[in-house]
């Protein structure tokens, strides 16, 4: 049996295999943060992929928390109801569970769509607004400086994370991922490069992680008992004096003790001059370091593109699940090909059973709802 196609538990949620579609921003929502036809076709594609779990894109808990004006939101009931309608429709295609990543972009908000390339909008421009952060330090020198959050502002954001978590449950998601990575707001509080505060939310390690911890605790208290919440972390900032792997390990242990069902290990995104050493498996060692101290599953992600590569990571005990992002956009049936390569069986929609390649024995079986 291929390890990649063994089931895995994220708390009480069982996945049929260990392939996780990692969240990928689509920048295709309305300016009101609502889903569009793009999301319908995209989520349907995910549902038919054969992956074990799909985590949809970073979804803002406040209008000011969006990366761009075209980001998906979950700060009101209209957004929730439209997502619920779409999710109900998509779930008729396959039994694959869907999760949502809840996020606040902090100082990296108020930007253009990446393919339009205009960078950050200032508050007085169309599509722009005043950003906030742990301190009034801009991400780029040419960006408009963020406003340092007051303690009341921090508590308002924590409450909005909780409100969005309740809406996520009501919308029909089966898991929530808290986004504390890639240089967005919670990561901004965690890193000494972005956090120069002198109150209880800045300075020492315990203070810098306080907002992330309080946000996680608030969300856990808001959702039904045992509803699974995982956390995505950047293992390091790839810049001297920044957030470190050792701090990631220490925070991961605390999150496990508080009830996190997994840690999803990525890296970077906090500093504009980060020096990332990109290559195959470039983040796997970070996941391995976190896995060594935890009892909950660890997801690794980043330039994992081949089935044998994913299988080897699991076989070496470096991670418990494999996150795929751009590789799955490029090849939406990546899990099918991985199953064929690794000699495993994979569940697919019965309408596709006849496309099993000639000479490949018993690769497909129909979805079991």
Automatic annotation (TrEMBL):
MF annotations from Gene Ontology: FMN binding; NADP binding; NADPH dehydrogenase activity
Record carries keyword Chaperone: no
Pfam family of the protein (one): Oxidored_FMN
Keywords, in A-Z order: Flavoprotein, FMN, NADP, Oxidoreductase
InterPro entries, per the entry: Aldolase_TIM, OxRdtase_FMN_N, YqjM-like
Superkingdom classification of source: Bacteria
Cofactor(s) the record lists: FMN
Domain NADH:flavin oxidoreductase/NADH oxidase N-terminal: 4-339
Protein name listed in UniProt: NADH:flavin oxidoreductase/NADH oxidase N-terminal domain-containing protein
């Amino acid at each position: 049996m291929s390890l990649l196609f063994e089931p895995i538990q994220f708390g009480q949620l069982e996945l049929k295999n260990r392939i996780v579609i990692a969240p990928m921003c689509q920048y295709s929502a309305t300016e009101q943060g609502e889903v569009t036809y793009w999301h319908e076709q995209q989520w349907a594609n995910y549902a038919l992929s054969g992956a074990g779990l799909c985590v949809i894109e970073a979804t803002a808990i406040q209008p000011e928390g969006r990366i761009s004006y075209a980001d998906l939101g979950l700060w009101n009931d209209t957004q929730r109801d439209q997502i619920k309608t779409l999710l109900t429709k998509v779930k008729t295609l396959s039994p694959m569970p869907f999760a949502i990543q809840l996020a606040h972009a902090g100082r990296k908000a108020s930007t253009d769509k990446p393919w339009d390339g205009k960078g950050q909008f200032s508050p007085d421009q169309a599509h722009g607004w005043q950003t906030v952060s742990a301190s009034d330090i801009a991400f780029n020198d040419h960006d408009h400086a963020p406003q340092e959050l007051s303690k009341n502002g921090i508590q308002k954001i924590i409450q909005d994370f909780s409100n969005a978590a309740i809406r996520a449950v009501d919308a029909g998601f089966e898991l929530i991922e808290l986004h504390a990575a890639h240089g967005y707001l919670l990561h901004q509080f965690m890193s000494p490069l972005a956090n120069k505060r002198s109150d209880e939310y800045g300075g020492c390690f315990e203070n810098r992680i306080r907002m992330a911890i309080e946000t996680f605790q608030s969300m856990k208290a808001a959702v039904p008992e045992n509803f699974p919440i995982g956390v995505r972390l950047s293992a390091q900032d790839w810049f001297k004096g920044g957030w470190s792997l050792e701090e990631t390990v220490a925070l991961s242990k605390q999150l496990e003790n508080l009830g996190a069902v997994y840690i999803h290990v990525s890296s970077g995104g906090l500093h504009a001059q980060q020096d990332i050493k990109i290559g195959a498996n470039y983040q796997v060692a970070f996941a391995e370091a976190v896995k060594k101290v935890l009892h909950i599953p660890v997801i690794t992600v980043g330039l994992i593109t081949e089935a044998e590569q994913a299988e080897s990571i699991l076989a070496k005990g470096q991670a418990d699940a494999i996150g795929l992002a751009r590789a799955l956009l490029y090849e939406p049936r990546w899990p099918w090909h991985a199953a064929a390569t690794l000699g495993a069986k994979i569940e697919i929609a019965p309408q596709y059973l006849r496309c099993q390649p000639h000479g490949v024995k018993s690769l497909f079986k129909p979805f079991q709802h």
